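Dear colleague,

Following up on Tuesday's group meeting, I ran the structure prediction for the four-component complex that the binding team flagged. I've pasted the input sequences exactly as they went in, so you can double-check that nothing got truncated or mislabelled along the way. The structure tokens for the whole assembly follow below. Feel free to forward this to whoever is handling the docking comparison.

Inputs:
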Amino acid sequence: MSEFTKELERRIDAGWLTEPQDVRRMLKHSAAEGRNMAQHIYAYMDLWLLQESLYPIYRVTMGGNADLDTLKAAANGIIGPAANNFRATKMEDTTSVLYRSITAISGCDSLESLAATIRVVQRFINMMFYAVDLAFPWDAMCQEYSRVMKDFVPPHRAGAVDVSDQ
Amino acid sequence: MKKLKFTFHGKDLYADMLTEEAPLTCEAVEKACPFTTRWVHAKIVYNEVFCPTTIEGPKFRENPIPNVPGDIGFYDLPQCICCWHGDMKPLGAGNVFARFTPEQMAAFHEETVGMWEETGCPVTVDVVEEV
Amino acid sequence: MKKLKFTFHGKDFYANMLTDQAPVTCEAVEKACPFTTRWVHAKIVANEIFCPTKIEGPVLRENPIPNLPGDIGLFDTPQTICCWHGDMKPLGSGNVFARFTPEQMEVFHAEATGLWKEPGSLVTVDVVEEE
Amino acid sequence: MSEITKELERRIEAGWMVEPQDVRRMLKHNDDMGRSFSQWLYAYMDMSQLQEILYQHYQLCLGGKVDLETMKAVAGSAMNTVASSARSNKMEDVMSVLYRSAAALNGCKDLEELADLIRKVQRFINMMFYAIDLAFPWSEVSKAYNEIRKDFVPPHRAGAVDVCDL
């Protein structure tokens, strides 16, 4: 097991039941301007992006009849921009892991080692996704949203025409 | 000098186009103008508004400099024009192709500072010669 | 008959493992057991809760059938065990590897309905032989 | 211009200033159980995710040094993943467009054609992303979030230890 994989396994175990520090870093960020809900949603969204998009590449890699360099480029093409977003969200551990995973992915010499590397990065992202999920007050927010939506009219609804859905 | 013109709230607001630093981007923006779209407020950065466009600009950023108040950038993903019109913590470096003078920014800021509460306001974008 | 055992709130809850319909998945689940994790409530589907796991199940779903109340499935993307424990509109079809009997589901449901307001509560998962 | 790209252009034009019907379909769905906030968020996340991923694949195709069949598999897999979520969010037009676009990828004979189709789908998803963004009362719900957070303690925070960030 490579040093990088060992680190990710350790981080997955540590973040399994106890909230990783990156979550608290993110929650503090942008709090002053009252934009922390958007901050929380965008962090959740960036983790969802990685979770949902790395998995299809992992499965194509597992399929075994795809081009190694193309898959590396596709995976790193997803991880790079996401790492930038986490820099902006102040999730510095996640940013560091993602930038180093680009190097690890570039160093894979077979579809098998690429699949293993993508998989361990994805499992780290899974852990972070649920850590950010558990830090969100879903029940209270759902109630507040439903209350606010009662008299909210989106700016682009005027003139909209529906085909019948009945 | 070419100017980027935003018309909304019944007013015309201007910024200077940076035709030397970002010639290809300015050309692509001018080619797509005039068009009407909507202001969307940035969700995290303060004093930033952007509007979706159908501009097909250069694939690689021509003038990728860290954004400061007054900058106007074009993002090929998601094809939008971003305006930073007051004090803010920038998130990254957009492809800056126009800039407000301090006076232009003050006028623009006054019209947009309430946009967080007024999402989706229609705006017409055009490129005009300095009058 | 092998049983999937959830221990939370100081009580034990059981479901029947579907070793003939999903042998490889059941084996992978048993191999990872016992482990402690947290319940996360589904965000859209009512009466669905899931818990993150480290199970390395089959990459291709062994028993991908539309989920019904009582089904228990393994999702390989986020490596979670999902339990549908009451009336609900299913979102898709998970890899179903265990199922509550009506009696088992009733007692599980009574304990699980409150979890929407109590996310993250600890649960220990195990596989045991029927006494 | 193929039939699917013509349809994509028409849908982009139509959804440009006026809210597409799929947004209203999605907002109505799951309203009865008070989970419409999560419904809105997951639809918003799916659009954001696919928009970012397809743009990276588009850039790789423009680069010209990737394997055509592997890029079709990777881009098609990304579209299919979100198509099935769109089905469960009741965004039936998005589902239909994505499944047909994923199929149309197979007909592209070179990277240039593939880049063009991926770009069109990405722009359609981009339009949907903003349509869903505008249907959310950001200002009001952000205030509610800040109120709720004041006395919300995440379940996994107990025992968390921070390294010093100052």
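Residues 36-63 of chain D form the longest helix (28 residues).

Cheers,
M.
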